[in-house]
């Protein structure tokens, strides 16, 4: 957000409240440097930590990060286990800082499919930060839009009619503000089963930067461009 955009009333009303990121390119980042993939993921966690700090400094209301998809189970067992290990270590090392910095952690996706030690840690982190009112950090874990929409539709059906509103009310994101901006790193331009419903009218922003190289300055660049986009929602 530029100082001028932040200070003018009209422009500040157009600021993004909810930004989501498909954090992609850890493997290619490592490959380019002839390093093991696991190290790419490790550097990816460092980028994530930095970005959460940056989002909080920017006063962003909600940051949603795609960390593990329902399709990522297809990766070799060793890589899945590296990712689980990183997740555990991240919670252990960063929970205090997030709790102290007023970050409210939420999870979308069916994280109960993870092993019980991971589930326990996630639940501890959710409970510890539940009353925080600063930036909401939403982590998508074992998340896939198709799974989310199917789960939401069956819950809606249990309660009566299946409509756009009754499905929306059962989505994992139901308590969050609408998605404004969806960013994907690493040059790929696809949704990969991420927030397909929520992205219906989100603005999309793609960058060739690989996730471990993504910094709060890149986020600022995307947010600055966002305020200049004209959103029409099908109207005129
Ligand atoms: C993103 O990086 C991290 C996860 C999907 C967990 P990738 O591991 O997909 O990196 P590339 O796409 O192979 O470079
Ligand atoms: C999307 O990235 C999932 C996450 C970032 C967690 P992938 O690397 O798994 O997506 P594809 O396979 O390139 O579409
Ligand atoms: Mg990838």
Describe the fold and architecture.
- The chain is α/β, with parallel strands linked by helices and 236 residues long.
- The chain has a single domain (15-205), classed as Undecaprenyl pyrophosphate synthetase (3-Layer(aba) Sandwich).
- The protein has nine helices and six strands.
- It has helices at 3-7, 9-13, 26-32, 37-58, 77-100, 116-129, 145-159, 164-168, 216-228; strands at 18-22, 62-69, 104-108, 136-143, 181-184, 203-206.
- The chain has a six-stranded parallel beta sheet, with helices on both faces.
- α4 (37-58) packs parallel to α5 (77-100), α4 packs across α9 and α5 packs parallel to α6.
- The longest helix is centred in the middle third of the chain and has 24 residues, at 77-100.
- The radius of gyration is 18 Å and the shape is globular.
- The relative contact order is 0.20.
- Residues 1-10 have low confidence and may be disordered.
- Bound molecules: 3-methylbut-3-enyl trihydrogen diphosphate (2 copies) and magnesium ion.
- One 3-methylbut-3-enyl trihydrogen diphosphate binds at residues 22-24, 66-69, 72, 188, 190, 192.
């Amino acid at each position: 957000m530029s100082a001028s955009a932040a200070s003018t009333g009209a422009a500040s009303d157009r600021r993004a409240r909810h930004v989501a990121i498909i954090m992609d390119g850890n493997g290619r980042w490592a490959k380019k440097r002839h390093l093991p993939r696991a190290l790419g993921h490790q550097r990816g966690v460092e980028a994530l930590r930095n970005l959460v700090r940056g989002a909080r400094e920017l006063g962003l209301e909600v940051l949603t990060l795609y960390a593990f998809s329902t399709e990522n189970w297809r990766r070799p067992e060793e890589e899945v286990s590296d990712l689980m290990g990183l997740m555990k270590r991240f919670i252990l090392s960063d929970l205090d800082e997030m709790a102290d910095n007023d970050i409210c952690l939420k999870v979308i996706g069916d994280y109960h499919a993870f092993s019980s030690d991971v589930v326990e840690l996630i639940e501890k982190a959710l409970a510890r930060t539940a009353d925080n009112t600063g930036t909401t950090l939403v982590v998508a874990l074992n998340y896939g839009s198709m799974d989310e929409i199917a789960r939401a539709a069956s819950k809606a059906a249990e309660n009566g009619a299946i409509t756009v509103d009754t499905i929306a009310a059962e989505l994992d994101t139901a308590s969050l503000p609408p998605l404004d901006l969806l960013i994907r790193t690493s040059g790929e331009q696809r949704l990969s089963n991420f927030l397909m419903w929520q992205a219906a009218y989100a603005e999309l922003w793609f960058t060739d930067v690989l996730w471990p190289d993504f910094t709060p300055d890149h986020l600022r660049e995307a947010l600055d461009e966002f305020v200049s986009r004209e959103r029409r929602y099908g109207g005129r």
